[in-house]
Amino acid sequence: MISITKSKIFVLTTIASILLTTYFAFTSQFWAGFWSLAIPVGFVVLLFFLIVFIGSIVFWKKSRYKYRQSHIPFFINIIAIITILCIPSHNLSKQYYKGTGKLCNYKTGNCGCNLYAQYYNVYDQGAWGTGLSAEYLTDSVSFRKHLGVYDENHEYINIVCKGDSIIVTKTSSEFINTQWSDPKVLERKSYSLSELKRNHNFD
Fold first, then answer.
1. 159 near 149, Cβ under 8 Å?
2. DSSP assignment of 120-169
3. What are the pLDDT digits (tens) for 121-140?
4. What is the domain partition of the chain in residue ranges?
5. Mind listing the pLDDT tens digit for each residue in 18-61?
6. Whole-Å CA distances, 140 to 95, 131, 133, 137
7. What would the DSSP string read from start to end of 47-86?
8. How far apart are CA 26 and CA 77, in angstroms?
């Protein structure tokens, strides 16, 4: 039987898997600045990977008696997919820092001055439209919690402190006249400040 490393599908599978993992690793960090280039490149990379992935399944079935370990190209693809699933979302990228604000400076925050909101740009359309920003809650020492991503045009993440409890509310004013109606609540979460400090998690 022929060694699987001498087959064309093995080479194609290796190339496709490397390209796919490299693409997602890059975009997880730099999506906000290069999304216009990343979208067409991603389409080509994903299409190429899909074709090779289907080819590896067909090869496994048809060539199992001709090549030793004919299943290896298929499992290389599976390893690539698992690796991609472990890569953090571009929404967690901190490559494009926007600013930090003390929560005690905001009337709606009502939190102590040792707590801060940090903002990062995760998607920027430039002149084409509004972008998306990620917001984090931190004390700059013991924790940093990812609160979510919001549309800069009509969404807002509000933080309210009540003792040890921190209530985070994401709202939207899209299609709403805020003079007559309150913004729509999209999501509400509650955190324990003491627990956040004790766990020392840094998103």
1. no
2. EEEE--GGGS--EEEEEEE-SSS-EEEEEEEETTTEEEEEEEETTEEEEE
3. 998 876 566 789 999 999 98
4. 2-87, 92-199
5. 999 999 999 999 988 888 889 999 999 999 999 999 999 999 98
6. 18, 26, 19, 9
7. HHHHHHHHHHHHHHHHSTTTEETTTHHHHHHHHHHHHHHH
8. 19
